[in-house]
């Protein structure tokens, strides 16, 4: 079992719709969770961080965390073509020694 | 603006010819990381420095070395690059084990 798992996609969503990206992790003691966006050929940039159960909203983005089920998700409302990118889920492990990335979900917003 | 700067952005080398990639940061973060990312894959942690303490991942090849002469700078040395080492190399920083701030990356091509 991978430490951080994501569906590789591609996930195709029509413009203006809600895109839903999911991530599961294996280390039950993990405390910190991040979503990064990566455009092709570019480095990852931080979109959201979440540390406690529930929802955290920032503009069109909402991160959701459920530690009991060991999953974290990212919702993108009113999807725009500029949201087309790979989204990386990242988790700090329970020993807080390093950040582990999932392999990413490729999101495509179709006009 | 405070940032993470990587040089060079693009590096072409010949098989077996040593390469050094550099990273500097003005964020005054105490942790610096080197990741390797190949196409459509997650960033793979090679090593990181927590202050002056060097942490090498178990599966990082001996061909890869790193130096951190001071808080602001970190170097990645690839002693004898092979074709399989062609990748994007990402430097990142964080305050303690927190969210990562990435540089723009150095793309290595091995001929």
Could you characterize what this model shows?
The complex is a heterodimer of chains A (111) and B (111). Chain A is 0% helix and 55% strand. Chain A is mainly β and 111 residues long. In chain A, strand 9 and strand 10 form a beta hairpin. In chain A, 35% of the residues are buried. The mean pLDDT of chain A is 93. Chain B is mostly beta strands and 111 residues long. Chain B has no helices and eleven strands. In chain B, strands 2, 4, 5, 6, 9, 10 and 11 form a seven-stranded mixed beta sheet that branches. Chain B has a four-stranded antiparallel beta sheet with strand order 1-3-8-7, with no helix packed on it. At the A-B interface, strand 4, strand 5, strand 9 and strand 10 of A face strand 9 and strand 10 of B.
Oligomeric nature of the chains: heterodimer
* Protein chains sharing the most extensive interface: A-B, 24 and 22 residues
* Rg of chain B: 13 Å
% residues in beta strands of chain B: over 45%
Structural class of chain A: mainly beta
Radius of gyration of chain A: 13 Å
């Amino acid at each position: 079992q991978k430490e951080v798992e994501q569906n590789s996609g591609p996930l195709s969503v029509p413009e203006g719709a809600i895109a839903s990206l999911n991530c599961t992790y294996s280390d039950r003691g993990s405390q910190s969770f991040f979503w990064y966006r990566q455009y092709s050929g570019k480095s990852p940039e931080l979109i959201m961080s979440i540390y406690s159960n529930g929802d955290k909203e920032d503009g069109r983005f909402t991160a959701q965390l459920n530690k009991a089920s060991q999953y974290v998700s990212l919702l993108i409302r009113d999807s725009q073509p500029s949201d087309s990118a790979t989204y990386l889920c990242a988790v700090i492990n329970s020993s807080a020694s390093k950040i582990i990335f999932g392999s990413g979900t490729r999101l495509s917003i179709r006009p | 603006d405070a940032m993470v700067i990587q040089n060079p952005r693009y590096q072409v080398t010949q098989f077996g010819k040593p390469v050094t990639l550099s990273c500097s940061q003005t964020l005054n973060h105490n942790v610096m990381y080197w990741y390797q990312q190949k196409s459509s894959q997650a960033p793979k942690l090679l090593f990181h420095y927590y202050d002056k303490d060097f942490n090498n991942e178990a599966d990082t090849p001996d061909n890869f070395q790193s130096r951190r002469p001071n808080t602001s700078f970190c170097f990645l040395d690839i002693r004898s690059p092979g074709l399989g080492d062609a990748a994007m190399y990402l430097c990142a920083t964080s305050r303690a084990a927190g969210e990562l701030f990435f540089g723009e990356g150095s793309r290595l091509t091995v001929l």
